[in-house]
């Protein structure tokens, strides 16, 4: 089975910093520590309201990240201009609602095909690899393919928020079937949102998964155990799942 990568999302280091208007804890420092602990990439979501990651973070991280930056952003002219100037390795296009506490679902690629295809083209022409954050639905996978984006990230929020085992099992099935369908069609398949230490293994065991992006649970655990241990423990769970342990 191919290797499974971990992208560590450091947004919530910035949430903590911004809560007091201080210059600490610094997400730049967190990214360096995350890489030393084995993160394969650093994910940051530059929200339109700048509630956590801010422009300064993106600029400095772009200079200091040793692995690769995965910039999550809404499909707006402002964000496209920033991405094309900064040129992160990856951009993941996500839906965004100003009033939401966190991302509530996948991007409706099928419903905005023209707009998203144009964004994918602009980013690709700037040398950026584009991923589309979508729900585990064939219609959205087909639309993602039509845009020319090489990657999708399957939204695992419904799986993470399932109210009982049956519901979670059904979500897992849907995600696994979608990963296989997308991979067969030639897309690289990532996943993320709401994954934590107790629900990550079944997702990590899906053979087509290329990378998992995990943030909130890792940063929360880091408050008690330190960032390095939090990342190493998550990677170990992912690797165990991959080996059927
Ligand atoms: C796009 C996505 O899946 C989110 O997980 C996001 O990256 C996390 O940021 P928020 O906590 O601001 O929703
Ligand atoms: N794209 C998902 C991500 O980056 C992290 O989401 P979460 O683990 O903070 O829910």
From TrEMBL:
Known pathway: Cofactor biosynthesis; pyridoxine 5'-phosphate biosynthesis; pyridoxine 5'-phosphate from D-erythrose 4-phosphate: step 5/5
Enzyme class per UniProt: transferase
Enzyme Commission no: 2.6.99.2
Quaternary structure and partners: Homooctamer; tetramer of dimers.
Similarity section: Belongs to the PNP synthase family.
Name of the gene encoding the protein in the UniProt record: pdxJ
Principal subcellular localisation of the protein: cytoplasm
InterPro entries on file: Aldolase_TIM, PyrdxlP_synth_PdxJ, Pyridoxine-5'_phos_synth
Site location (Transition state stabilizer): 153
Signal sequence range: none
Protein's cellular compartments: Cytoplasm
Name assigned to this protein: Pyridoxine 5'-phosphate synthase
Keywords linked to the UniProt accession: Cytoplasm, Pyridoxine biosynthesis, Transferase
Ligand binding (3-amino-2-oxopropyl phosphate): 9, 20, 194, 215-216
Protein purpose: Catalyzes the complicated ring closure reaction between the two acyclic compounds 1-deoxy-D-xylulose-5-phosphate (DXP) and 3-amino-2-oxopropyl phosphate (1-amino-acetone-3-phosphate or AAP) to form pyridoxine 5'-phosphate (PNP) and inorganic phosphate.
Domain of life: Bacteria
MF (Gene Ontology): pyridoxine 5'-phosphate synthase activity
Record field: transmembrane: none
Catalytic activity: 3-amino-2-oxopropyl phosphate + 1-deoxy-D-xylulose 5-phosphate = pyridoxine 5'-phosphate + phosphate + 2 H2O + H(+)
Organism: Oceanisphaera avium
Active site annotation, chain numbering: 45 (proton acceptor), 72 (proton acceptor), 193 (proton donor)
GO biological process: pyridoxine biosynthetic process
Binding residues annotated for 1-deoxy-D-xylulose 5-phosphate, in chain numbering: 11-12, 47, 52, 102
GO CC terms in record: cytosol
